[in-house]
Amino acid sequence: MTLSDHMDDDLVYKVANRRLKEIAEELPHPDIGTHFSVDEDGRGLIDIYYRQDLIGQEIIETADSWRKKDRLMAYGDVLRKRIRLVVIAPWAEAMKVRYMMLELNNWWLFYYMVYGYDSQGRLYRVLRPSLQEVETPYVD
Known about the structure:
Trna Endonuclease, Chain: A, domain 1, six-stranded mixed beta sheet
C-alpha cells in the first residue's frame, strides 16, 4: 500500500463519517440503520436499511476506482434492486461520473444521485449536466 492509498483511505473514512451524519439527519426514523464497509478496491460502501430491508446503497469512489470498467454495471446492479443509489466521487472526477451515469437515465432517472467531495471531505451535489456542456471520455 502506498502513501496515496492511505490518503485515499483517510479521505474515504472522512467522507463516510460526514455522509453517515447526513443520512441520520435526512432519515431520522428509529427503524433506519446503516452499515459502512470498505471493499478490496478501497471504495467506501454505505448500506441503508429500514428495519431489515435494504433501501439504499451509497458508494464512495476513490480517484481511481470509479474508472474501472465494471463500475457502470455495478451501479446498474444496485438500481435493479429498486433501491436508491448515491455515488460519491472526488470533486475533480464527479462531473465525469455524472456523465457516465447518464447512460442509466433510460431506466432509472430518479433513483440515483451523484456527489463530489473535496480534499477536506466536504460534499457537493452534482446536478444533471446541461446539453451545452461538452462530453469528455470517462474511462481510460
